[in-house]
Amino acid sequence: PPSYPVKVRVSYQKLLKCFVLNELHHRPPKAQKKKHLFRSLAATKFFQSTELDWAEAGLQVCKQGYNMLNLLIHRKNLNYLHLDYNFNLKPVKTLTTKERKKSRFGNAFHLCREILRLTKLVVDANIQFRLGNVDAFQLADGLQYIFSHVGQLTGMYRYKYRLMRQIRMCKDLKHLIYYRFNTGPVGKGPGCGFWAPMWRVWLFFLRGIVPLLERWLGNLLARQFEGRHSKGVAKTVTKQRVESHFDLELRAAVMHDLIDAMP
User: Fold this and answer.
1) Where is the PROCN domain (predicted)?
2) What pTM, to 2 d.p., does this model score?
3) CB under 8 Å to 4, separation ≥6 — which residues?
4) Between the CA of residue 170 and those of 9, 108, 150, 176, what are the distances in Å?
5) I want to staple 143 with a disulfide (CB 3.0 to 4.6 A). Which of 2, 161, 185, 195 is the partner?
């Protein structure tokens, strides 16, 4: 549509392009046997089932995630790093170079932290709604804001840069929705509680990131429990080592002879 402003037009084209690409690569779904995760889990003796409210489940996720990250931090004895409940990792004091070097974490830890942070934001919005501090419209606005500004609210893209695609897609959706919504008598309002498309983008992102995180966290935990593999490897004998050994042996032999010669 030529009457649209440029940024909305560009957003439109991008989203359309994405949609068309997906449609082109879409194969008709294969018929598969229905597998029920919960039933197969319930069949084993490790799992029990319980009824939980969604908000409570969200709080549990945040709490357990917080404990998990804290365990990793304390596993490395980094008591000068503090992880607050919004999953910001902050040093307590000015760190020495050695401490800074020790307190570096890999992408697995940080990506987990940022995903938990996004979860925390969403859960917090819902909790505020439950407490009656905001009404449903404000909740919807807040969710829409969170999902369309993931790049500002969290630093997720630092650890997996491919995420920029999702962020841009949400931005395009935001342009479209706002252009259609903030027209006529509404004007530029505080926001628009239309969060489902953005939520969809992030849901698919989380579904896709799961295997990657599984691999990363698997490696991380294996390293935490077993130590690095390079520890067990014997030093290779280089020319320099051979010669220095020879010198040492020679010295030892000379000393030995001298001591023998002493009456």
Assistant:
1) 3-263
2) 0.75
3) 12, 179
4) 15, 24, 9, 10
5) 195
